[in-house]
């Protein structure tokens, strides 16, 4: 796969342990398919992608280039058809700050955001287009996404940032058909399944062992 990522099917815990031991140092980021009844988007159950970086992992399992995911600069300030105009959004910019300071409801992070996302600086933002299943950025990244407002950034750099942010967001949430891992969470998962197996509980790939699959 591109950017030195690899795809592999690992149907048993033994296969997962053995493969991870060979990949941990060179490809420390992973994504695994989670079986679901419908709507599988990226990987099937027991399918994995391993990659050397967060961005490479996301690019690989989403098939970013193949399906044509792209980034585009949106010029908000000059968009006369915007749902909320740039002028209207910032109309009470300074007054809002002064009011919240007076009310004791203004934090250091608020001040940082106030300076960074000022009317002069926040004139537009980079957006992602053609996400799978017509997903919008709000659903893709969830709450807390900080708009990238530096128009001078090369598109390739914006893509890398968006891919890294995808990984960082998805590692902290439950998605219905895929899970992403770093070294710590991969080690934790394998240790968890080892413990479950030791205690006689259901564990990763146990049904495939019972069916005679050993690799």
Mean pLDDT figure: 92
By DSSP, the count of extended strands is 6
* Physical arrangement of strands within the biggest beta sheet: 1-3-2-6
Estimate the global geometry from the Cα principal axes: elongated
What's the structural blueprint in terms of helices and strands?
Layout: E1 6-9, H1 13-23, E2 29-33, E3 47-51, H2 54-62, H3 64-67, E4 70-74, H4 86-89, H5 93-102, H6 108-116, E5 125-129, H7 137-141, H8 155-170, E6 178-181, H9 183-198, H10 206-210
Antiparallel strand pairs: 1-3, 2-3, 2-6, 4-5
Helix pairs in contact: 1-9, 2-8
Description of the structure:
The protein is α+β, with helices and mostly antiparallel strands. The protein is 41% helix and 13% strand. The chain is built from ten helices and six strands; from the N terminus they run E-H-E-E-H-H-E-H-H-H-E-H-H-E-H-H.
């Amino acid at each position: 796969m591109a950017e030195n990522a690899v795809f592999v099917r690992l149907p048993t815990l033994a296969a997962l342990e053995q493969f991870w031991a060979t990949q941990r140092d060179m490809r420390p980021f992973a994504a695994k398919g989670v079986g679901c009844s419908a709507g599988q988007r990226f990987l099937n159950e027991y399918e994995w992608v391993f990659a050397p970086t967060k961005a490479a992992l996301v690019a690989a399992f989403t098939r970013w280039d193949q399906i044509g995911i792209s980034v585009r600069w949106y010029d908000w300030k000059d968009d006369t058809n915007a749902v909320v105009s740039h002028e209207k959004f910032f109309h009470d910019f300074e007054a809002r700050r002064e009011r919240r300071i007076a009310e004791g409801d203004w934090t250091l992070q608020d001040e940082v955001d106030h300076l960074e996302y000022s009317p002069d600086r926040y004139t537009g933002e980079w957006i992602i287009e053609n996400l799978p299943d017509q997903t919008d950025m709000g659903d893709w990244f969830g709450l807390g996404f900080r708009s990238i407002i530096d128009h001078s950034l090369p598109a390739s750099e914006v893509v890398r940032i968006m891919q890294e942010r995808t990984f960082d967001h998805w590692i902290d949430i439950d998605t219905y058909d895929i899970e992403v891992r770093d070294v710590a969470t991969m080690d934790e998962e394998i240790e968890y399944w080892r413990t479950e197996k030791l205690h006689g509980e259901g564990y990763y790939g146990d049904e495939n062992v019972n069916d005679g699959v050993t690799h």
